[in-house]
Amino acid sequence: MYKLLFPFIMCGFLGLSQSVDLDRLGKAKLFDYNGSLSANGVFYEGTANRQAFTYFLNGNLNFNIGEVYNVPFSFAYTNQNFDFSSPFKLNRLSISPSYKWITLHIGDAAMTFSPYTLSGHQFTGVGVDLAPPGPFKISAMYGRFLRAVEYNVDEPNQQTAYLRRGFGLKTSYAFDQLDLGLIFFKGFDDENSLREPFPTELGLTPKDNAVVSLSTDVRVKEKINIRMEYAISGITEDVRVNDESEGKGLLSFFLNENITTNYTNAFNASIDYSMGNGTLGGAYERIDPNYRTFGAYYFNNDLENITVNASQTIFDNKLNIGVNAGLQRDNLDDSKASAMKRLVSAINLNYTPTEKLGINGSFSNFQSYTNIRDQFDYINQTNELDNLDTLNYRQISKNANLGINYTVKQTETRNDRAHINLVYQDSNEEQEGKSIENSGNQFYNGSASYALGYPQQSLTITVAANTSYTKTGETDTGLTLGPTLGVAKQFFDKKLRSNFSASYNTSFTNGEQQNQFYNLRLGGNYAWKEGHNFTLNILSLFRNTVQTNTTDFTTTFGYTYTFGRGKKNNVDRPPSSFGQSPPQNDLLTFRYRDVVYSGTPSEIKQQLQNVLQQSRYEQLPQEKRAELDQMLLEMEKTSNPERLKDMAIALLEELHRFEELNKIKE
Known about the structure:
By secondary structure, the protein is mainly beta. 11% of the residues lie in helices and 54% in strands.
């Protein structure tokens, strides 16, 4: 027990040394509160296998004492059914009170210490962040990471799990030119938490985990910044085994060691150098095979990354250039039958020659090499036929994007904008230096829009056209094209915001028409009095295919009530207008699963739409597509670049999660 309590004894000792500043009490309103309640419902009628009616209830409440102490409270509830069971709770209850530099996390919470220790894993318990004025910072947590879930023979897809608890401590100290950090995390299963027997085929065993991480951040003359982190994780795969390990490990003081105990390491270092109007940098990362901790859901491991990057702004800040290149390899311990190397390069350009014209482009090239069988086999082959089963495989993926935004007219009465976006994606596979027949895939997409804005009438009319073409090998596998008309209008002193869009798309395969889609959307948002907000969105999708004709009808309505002092009212929020692009200097660049997304917010949204139009997602169920479309609509209302980036990654994660679930079901 003393092993488990040691970090928290240290935390308590350090916490007692802090003082509480009560000078704001008595100078501000003693008690205040604010919050909101919202209810949303979705009616659905169509051919998809989904509930006819679903509802979502959300609420949050924040109490403030003397403007120095906050106690937030939130809840969420839904009747949505899920197709799989999980030991993670889907409905959450959390409270995060704060007092100046002290923040508590009570209930269902998630904290992040570092990528290699505790990283966003939800737990039920308590956590604290202490950030007093000065160089010293400390965070700590304790809670339940997994509930005990007994094996149920009637639900084979249910995930059986031991009760898992954990605690962690993070400390850091900032010197003048140097920051030092130390992290400790401990996770452990209760071997007595499962009483019902379960099949040994599940491979489920009670485990124990301890992680220690050291980090440093060095600043040299305000131009050079060096960051490093080293983490070691020890995991005992089965604490019930009595056979002792051959020797004590580095974390044996905190870990229940036996012959099933393994230690793995993770290390990363980066350097950035500021020069002129740009930066030059490089990074190195190495994660041992099978590295993981109980403080994260998923780890990329068995990889080594070497990257370099540079960015520069020239021509009076009109042209911004960003270049990235990297090399990644796996099979670090030579235990796999195959090894892969991946070469990554990307360039991003953003050019604004005038206030009216903005041009941005990006190009990325990903090459991965896979070799099966050891090089020793090549050295000892006696003739060219010996190693015909040897695989020397290379995959090449190229992505290019060009976007042009032009303000045609901008006056008090008119605001006209034109936008063109072109996307090209190409992938090819080679074996033994030769292209594999029919392995190449090319995807082309082009879209153009023209928005007529009438600011005095709060009216925007947009006409757009979109086309995409897919080719596999020598076969034309898909051509999709169609127009879109959108209208956005505000009424009653901008209290009522309405929008309507109609689109038509048709697809062809090998020159023959296959599908026709008619899409009608009608939406509205009304702010009534102070704090009341009503929303209504109607979607009708008519699909004509070679086999059948179907109709899907979805209605989403919601009500939000905001109360208390300091509440936010959406009446004065700028309207969401079709085709109007945010400022051109809000250039976003991020990578998700080896794909680089870059451009202005409107172009990022278009790139995500292009992803959903790829042929690999043609069989996406309508309810999932409607959910992703709704996420895109929410992104249309967002102008904050960082918020947009988070929403884009969330959409891609949702799409990837759906793909993974389908693989499991198959």
